[in-house]
Amino acid sequence: MKNAVNCPELILASKSPRRRYLLEKAGLEFTVIPSKVNENSVILSAPDSYVKSLAEAKARNISIRYPDSWIIGADTIVFIDNTILGKPASRDEARAMLKSLSAKTHQVHTGYCICRKATDHLISDCVTTDVRFKTLSEKEIEWYINSGEPFDKAGAYAIQGIGTFLVKGINGSYTNVVGLPICEVLEYLIKEGVVDLAEKASKHHAGLSI
After folding, report:
1. Considering the entire predicted model, what is its pTM?
2. How far is CA 176 from CA 19, 74, 111, 135, 150, in A?
3. CA 58 to chain centre
């Protein structure tokens, strides 16, 4: 799929339904081709550097096969008490993560990378959001785990889902917590002409006239 006439193809190098949803809600047309990067091969470092490295690795992995396309790679982690929380592999891990987040403020770091190999374009950065949790009772934790939502989510929660009840407040980008800082990603795509605002506006007006 194309973003606009004469614009390069846009590829999301992630199977995350949350990132796909965010890009779709932003009105972008794109293809989903998940990267096959072994995340364990990326050296663990400071949270911001780590997620940037993962995002770059994912984007580069797809750009090798599609050098003329614009690729978006991303990775999200939850960080608290000098510990990175990934996706829980069991109920016990989910329970431990939620207990560690209860009544505290943690950071959500999302690294993103946008690249086009054919023209040597590459930008990568990290956006950080502070998220404050309510005090969670054991019953609330067990109920949330039983919902099944904590699994396949960094930090064992989804702010855009049932997990919204866990969050007292945030300071920073909401979409970053969901999985992709849409503001920053769109700014770069517009700057590089991948997204044509004039064409998007004309399509919008055409739709209104139908």
Report:
1. 0.87
2. 10, 10, 9, 23, 17
3. 12
CA distances from 116 to 64, 72, 99, 109, 123 (A): 9, 9, 42, 24, 10
Alpha helices in the chain (DSSP H): 17-25, 47-63, 91-101, 138-147, 174-178, 182-191, 197-209
Distance, in Å, from the CA atom of 166 to the CA atom of 98, rounded to the nearest integer, reads: 9
Q: What tokens were used for 122?
A: 């590459």
Cite the active site residues. 75
- pLDDT digits 0-9 by tens, 144-163: 999 999 998 999 999 999 99
CB atoms within 10 A of CB 55: 29
Assess whether pLDDT exceeds 60 at residue 4: no
**Cβ contact 49:42 at 8 Å:** no
Taken in order of first residue, the domains within the chain and their CATH numbers are 10-209 (3.90.950.10)
Answer yes or no: are the C-beta atoms of 14 and 73 closer than 8 Å.
yes
Distance CA 123, CA 116 (A): 10
Contacts of residue 210, Cβ cutoff 8 Å, sequence gap at least 6: none
Residues 25, 182: Cα–Cα separation, whole Å: 10
pLDDT in tens, 12-63: 999 999 999 999 999 999 999 999 988 777 878 899 999 999 999 999 999 9
